[in-house]
Amino acid sequence: MFPLKNLIKRLLAGALLAGVMALPIFAQDPAPVTVAQPEVRPAVERVELTGSFTARRAAQLSPRLSGLVETIDIDAGDAVAAGDVVVRLDDRLAELQLGQAEAAVAQLRASFDEAVRLRDEALRLGEDRFFPDTEIQARKSAVQVAKAALDVASAERDTAAERLARHAIVAPFDGVIARRLTEAGEWVETGTAVAELVAVDDLWLDVQAPQRLWPRLRQDTDIEIIVDALDGRALTGEVAARVPVSDPAARTFLLRLILPEADPAITPGMSARTVIRLRTDAAALLVPRDALIRYPDGTITLFTVDDSASPPVARQRQVAVGRVDGDRAVIESGLSPDQAVVVRGNEVLTEGQPVRIVEDGG
Prior knowledge:
By secondary structure, the chain is of the alpha+beta class. It has helices spanning 2-26, 92-126, 133-165, and strands spanning 31-36, 39-55, 58-61, 67-72, 79-80, 85-89, 168-170, 175-180, 187-188, 195-198, 203-210, 222-227, 233-247, 252-258, 271-288, 293-294, 300-306, 313-318, 320-325, 328-333, 341-344, 355-360. The chain has 4 domains: 29-43 and 283-360, conserved putative lor/sdh protein from methanococcus maripaludis s2 fold; 47-57 and 199-282, Beta Barrel (Elongation Factor Tu (Ef-tu), domain 3); 61-88 and 173-194, CATH 2.40.50.100; 91-166, Helix Hairpins (Orthogonal Bundle), CATH 1.10.287. Helix 2 packs antiparallel against helix 3. The longest helix is centred in the N-terminal third of the chain and has 35 residues, at 92-126. It is elongated, with a radius of gyration of 43 Å. It starts with a helix and ends with a strand.
């Protein structure tokens, strides 16, 4: 009899103690949270790629004939303009040959002028029947022969002048000497590179882009170029070309970008990051990225506020996240557009915990 009474008393005491201990849990103050309303709009896919600046024009300067290097007045880093002489070959013999050719032209021009004078004289006398027709024809033929000889000599003179000009190797465009590849006194053959010239004010950025972007890239695509060497300065880029030859292994294609305005601080070889923003026509459900809670196993959840309770309570929902649009993430499933999400204070929330909205995150 007494043991049964003692057991009942102990059970009642334990239940009372458990109730007392549970009171602080149910009586805890609601957690302050900030919420934001999801957006429904066409999403912008943000794609980040890396690449390097390359010169649109670069040339290995080489002579068009063999010869001895007489002077070389450039070195690596020197800026040159189109038409500047960078290397000159020994041209003494070419100068002499040109002088001979010019003398021959002068001699034959005098012969031609004399032949013309004699022909005109014969024609004038022939009008009065004082000159035989055969002699007139002979003098006409002499003019033609003299003219042909003069033309040949003129062509030889032009050839000699061109040969002399080819002893000077000139810059074909404005740029900077990247490498000096010869020295005075060296013999160079036709086609031997003597210097490397790079146009540093005319650059493009080469990046390898995923094949899936091919049909979506246009010249007016929103592109931002971030140059790390310039303290992360962001510049506006434009699509210059899409090279259709893809890399089947990497499933990429070459995308070439340009800067609308040249920046002298950027040089060939500098690396850069590109941010490509691609708009889509389909509407998407977007929430602030701060609302997402990621777990090591890949699970992604967020908290909504159930205001049907008093006070409102937090409800944890597992969601499927698609692409990221700036500071927003596309929710593919697990959330309705009319459900506000917690963007601040969600780090320590638990399912069913009372909450108090202190700020609307928009």
